[in-house]
Amino acid sequence: MNTILVQDPARPVEAVRLRAVGDGGPILRVNNLEVTYYTDSGRAKALDDVSFTLNSGEKLGMVGESGSGKSTLALAMMRMIKAPGRIEGGSVVVGGGDLMTLDAESMRKARLSRIAYIPQGAMNSLNPVTRIGAQMVDAVKSHLPREGRAAIEARCKRALQSVDLDPGVYRMYAHELSGGMKQRVCIAIGILLDPHVIIADEPTSALDVVTQRQVMETIDNVQKAINAAVILIGHDMGLMAQFVDKVAVMYAGRLVEVSTVREMFTDPKHPYSQALISSLPSLGNKGVFQGIPGLAPSLLRLPSGCAFHPRCASAMPHCTTIRPEPQVLPGGRRVTCHLYDGEA
Amino acid sequence: MADLLRLENVSKVYSHGIINAHSTIALRNFSLTLKEDEPTILTVAGESGSGKTTLAMLLLGFITASAGQIIYRGKNIASLHGAEKMAYRREVQAVFQDPFAVFNPFYTVDHLLTVPIKRFGLAKSKADARNKMEEALTAVGLRPEDILGRFPHQLSGGQRQRINVARALLLKPRLLIADEPVSMVDASLRATILETLRNLQRDHGVSVIYITHDLTTAYHIAKSIIVLYRGSVMEAGDVDRVIKEPQHPYTQLLVDSIPWPNLDQRWGAQPIKAREVGGNTDGCRFRTRCPMAMEICKQDPPLFRIDERHAASCFLYEKRPEIAKAQLSELLPV
Questions:
Q1: Are residues A70 and A167 in the same domain?
Q2: Which residues make Cβ contacts (< 8 Å) with residue A244, sequence separation at least 6?
Q3: Does A154 touch chain B (CB under 8 A)?
Q4: Which of A190, B34, B85, B236 makes the best surface tag, with the fewest CB within 10 Å?
Q5: Where does the ABC transporter domain start and stop, copy by copy (chain A) (predicted)?
């Protein structure tokens, strides 16, 4: 095993083999994914017919209000939805194989090696009583049981270096690190096995701007190095503008628009996207707080027809009764809105 | 004209260890005055470890200053007792950063609102208390029927944070200390919470000290700004001037790192020097990371006046007139 690593330190053999499966076409295909939470007060459909694709090396921003289903999507893709939630249907195809059809053991193997998840609060996701190194070794060992100790350690230290951390962090405990460093440790763990897809769930929500920029630049660099697809979940459109290639907007469990980042910022199509974009602060409009009127709907009692119609400035009579279906506009953008009914 | 709040050369030193005592200066010689009849919104900005939260803790009386004094309406807050202390506790309210940590998971969220109502005798009857709670919740954009009677784990971070703002509203304070109130809240809700804070200042005459690392929201809500780095004031003045034309290299780094939602305004290319754990304890605190560091930076830089409403503590501007740190507040527009 040692010789393999020496030959090609940047690209371990297993990762290369796995990656080869996905050549040609998108590395990630999510089709009609549905998740429902069976709560005491009723059924809440947290993901409703969510479909999108992503190519290797592409970065997708997933934006929406709290409760719109962003984190549920991440957990569903990792198959980490806990009761009372249940994945009701759909497929998540990563590099050729559908994760939803795997048995529990194969799914455990697929996590981290094919699809990695960088959790929201890095402060709370590291074990406080074991060293960083031990936690990283744990992760590698369960995927590559035959790899030698020295090789694993070398791999972990390389991962730490790739996120600009000193290899000495390997011997440290979580409390010895700052918030930004802990977040970078989580990123290092996420890329240990060169996954095809990295899901980062609000990786910088608790960090200050300077650290945020460092962390985002780190993700950008490692993503380029292993050519993974990245899904960045968040609500900070500023961060999206700086980081992603495509933006997907979620509302009440549905994808209402998928566009390139430039289209999204210059010509948003869905009225909710338009409201999101015009609510953004900039240097030009000081003191103008243009929030989005109304409140996010409760998933337990969704409005009839289009779930956004009570807050929509361009709502039409049939928006209250007929649910819009996703449609592809000329140019490849996907919008779920009756305004574009004739154009698809 | 009475001062609502006056900080005179306040410092806070944290020390640990008995034999080889280590000390960390969290706040150094900080002076600030807020006038009673001119409610304002002042931003205190800086990254983690800059002393912003220490300042909030000092103002709320949770910790005592190592040096200097904090005067609230003519009285040193360290010597308040009885009814005066109760009045101070009601009139100076806080909204904290982490909406998860302020709730006791064993109680429903009503607890957070009923305790202050009882403690300060704000309501005459149960129905009155209920009305007050509903009013405050509606004012921050929540549906009372969705909130009351729920446990904290059943609510989202944004909802919980707005309950905190509602609690502060309920008490009709004179001074609100908002420590990163929106950093864990959705962008679309940020506007609502910030708007609520601004209404407090405009309509209810409440002064707000808005503590944040987020210069975007600071720019939109505040009139003036003080930028802290490791306990020292780096730059201060009119928020427009400071953010549009930052003079101090540290403020320039901060402004450069704002992710503006604008495709043509990219992040700066300037590489960021990592922050050392201990860092230097003398001279300019920023000098080990500063791209412009000079020999003279080993001395403590005084505040230099850039213009009428703008000052920076940096030797790059040593040709400009010096101003005493205690006069800082005179620069800040209200």
A1: yes
A2: A59, A60, A61, A230, A232, A261
A3: no
A4: B85
A5: 28-277
Query: How much is the pLDDT for A20?
Result: 42
- Judgement on whether residues A246 and A314 belong to the same structural domain of the protein: no
State the total domains in chain B.
1
Question: Residue A260 domain-assigned?
Answer: no
pLDDT band at B201 (very low <50, low <70, confident <90, very high): confident
Chain B residues with CB-CB distance to A287 below 8 A? 220-221
- The pLDDT assigned to B188 comes to 66
Set of chain A residues whose Cβ sits within 8 Å of the Cβ of B192: 289, 291
Mean pLDDT calculated for residue range B10-25: 79
Q: Which of A128, A158, A153, A126 is nearest to A140 (CA)?
A: A153
CA-to-CA distance for A27 and A114, rounded, in angstroms? 10
- Residue B317 is assigned to a structural domain of this protein: yes
Of B48, B184, B221, the CB nearest to A179: B48
Residues A164 and A21 reside in one and the same domain: yes
Q: Which residues numbered 172-201 in B keep a CB inside 8 Å of some CB on A?
A: 183-184, 186-189, 191-192, 194-195, 198
Q: In chain A, whose CA is at the least distance from the CA of B185?
A: A66
| Contact (CB<8Å) B47/A65 | no
Q: Is B23 inside any structural domain?
A: no
Average pLDDT, chain A: 85
Residues 132-151, chain B: which have Cβ within 8 Å of A?
A: 141, 143, 146
What CATH number is associated with residue A187?
3.40.50.300
Do A276 and A232 fall into the same domain?
A: no
Least confident of A15-29, A62-76, B125-139: A15-29
Q: Judge whether A262 lies within some domain.
A: no
Share of chain B above pLDDT 90, in %: 28
The answer to whether B215 contacts A281, with C-beta atoms less than 8 Å apart, is no
Nearest CA in chain B to A39: B154
Instruction: Work out the average pLDDT over B259-263.
Output: 81
The rounded distance, in Å, linking the Cα atoms of A293 and A275 is 9
CA distance A137 to A143: 10
Range of the domain at B248: 226-334
Please report whether residue A257 resides in a domain: no
Same domain (yes/no): A135, A98: yes
In total, how many domains does chain A have? 2
pLDDT at A320: 93
* Contacts of the segment B19-27: beta carbons below 8 A, 24+ positions apart: B25/B230, B25/B231, B25/B281, B26/B51, B26/B54, B26/B231, B27/B51, B27/B54, B27/B55, B27/B58, B27/B228, B27/B231
- ipTM metric: 0.73
Measured between CA atoms, the residue of chain A closest to residue B140 is A295
Chain mean pLDDT for chain B: 85
Q: Find the CB nearest B244 among A243, A280, A283.
A: A283
**CB contact residues (below 8 A), chain A span 239-278, against chain B:** 239-243, 261-262, 265-266, 276-277
* pLDDT of amino acid A344: 63
Domain enclosing residue A308, as ranges = 272-282+289-344
